[in-house]
TrEMBL record:
It holds the Pfam family RraA-like. InterPro entries: RraA/RraA-like, RraA/RraA-like_sf. Catalyzes the aldol cleavage of 4-hydroxy-4-methyl-2-oxoglutarate (HMG) into 2 molecules of pyruvate. Also contains a secondary oxaloacetate (OAA) decarboxylase activity due to the common pyruvate enolate transition state formed following C-C bond cleavage in the retro-aldol and decarboxylation reactions. Keywords: Magnesium, Metal-binding. Mg(2+) binds at residue 110. Its cofactor is a divalent metal cation; Mg(2+). It comes from Microbispora oryzae. Gene3D superfamilies: Ribonuclease E inhibitor RraA/RraA-like. Its EC number is 4.1.1.112, 4.1.3.17. Homotrimer. Substrate binds at residues 87-90, 109. This is Putative 4-hydroxy-4-methyl-2-oxoglutarate aldolase.
Length: 222
């Protein structure tokens, strides 16, 4: 698995998305954007599911962060609620524990401080209102659904995120997707090399099968 993670981390989410398309797998998480950090983040998902509580009912802050293995990506399923379930305290612990990054289907606060720390977070947006006494942790390490188009993330699925956004690679398909990512990436590099050497883009694409890959994506989409 470490080799697969290295392969995925070496390519952009654009290339990984193309590989998922060719395999006929959904994975792009629509509606989230990078809030902080600059790293390419790739790691197994550690999932946390939240649920609302009735008004006036106490609900403590979620305690799970010490259970997250180093190298994991924390995936917080808060169903887009405009209350925050991540801030600078959790970020400090995450950094100390070697957690790769955090993906939130919801909102994040303390963004200025998190940016100063250089930690990578993706969320719907920033907002200051706490989730304490508004939502509570329902479960950890269970399948969750995130994003506008409802992408399921299971514990151990590979989460890949960069400036383009967030996507999920199913753990069972990760090795095959990584192999396809290598093939696509090498083909695109050959196209770019030939264009820089003076060949037309049309001829470079034809020479290296660029459009054949696009046709495979279209055929699988049907």
């Amino acid at each position: 698995m470490s080799e697969t993670l290295s392969v995925l981390a070496a390519r952009s989410t654009s290339t990984i998305s193309d590989a998922l398309d060719i395999a006929g797998l959904a994975g792009a998480v629509f509606g989230l954007r990078r809030m902080s950090g600059s790293a390419v983040v790739v790691g197994p998902a550690f999932t946390v599911m939240f649920e609302p509580v009735a008004e006036g009912r106490p609900a403590a802050a979620a305690d799970y962060i010490e259970d997250v293995p180093a190298g994991s990506v924390v995936v917080l399923a808060n169903e887009g609620r405009a209350v925050t379930v991540w801030g600078d305290i959790l970020t400090s612990v995450a950094l100390a524990n070697g957690i790769a990054g955090t993906v939130i289907d919801g909102y994040c606060r303390d963004v200025d401080g998190i940016r100063e720390l250089g930690y990578s977070v993706w969320a719907r947006d920033a907002f200051m209102r706490t989730g304490k006494n508004r939502v509570r942790m329902r479960a950890v390490q269970v399948p969750v659904v995130i994003g506008d188009e409802g992408v399921e993330v299971r514990p151990g699925d590979i989460v890949c995120a960069d400036g383009n956004g967030v996507l999920r690679v199913p753990s069972a398909a990760a090795d095959d997707i990584a192999a396809e990512v290598v093939r696509i990436g090498e083909m695109e590099e050959r196209v770019l090399r030939d264009v820089r050497a003076g060949l037309s883009l049309r001829d470079a694409r034809l020479a290296h099968g660029y459009n054949r890959a696009a046709l495979r994506i279209a055929a699988d989409a049907r």
